[in-house]
Amino acid sequence: MLAGFGRLVANKIFKFPRGTKRSSYTQLYVAFFLSAILHFFGDLAYEKRITSRSFKFFLLHAVAITFEDLVIYTTKRLLRREGKADKPWTGVVVRVIGYCWVTLWLCLAMPPWLDELNTLGFSSADRKPIAKFLLNKWNQWA
To answer: Does the predicted model carry a pTM greater than 0.85?
Structure first.
């Protein structure tokens, strides 16, 4: 459903041609925005003090995916410039970079998402040193 609405906005309202970057990124941001709205209502039902966390969390995911696309594009361009783009291992390199990025992003994004619930008493998770460090950094940036 979210993808269909994203296509509607990108292709019918903004008239971006299908398959273009403008269309893809519009669909991406619309889907994450709608997901944030849906989670906002859950936050609102649970605790009014945490209603902004869904917007931060889900919209930052769209930004992270955009950044990941930039890194993959840059990696492919560098490999092409070095004449190594046609080597069989280049696809593996790009895929491994993508998996590393997803893992890193989830390690960065999940502690702040869960921390607000923990501070409200939703969970009493014992935070390990890395999670504490990331939460401190996240709170400094926010």
So the answer is: no
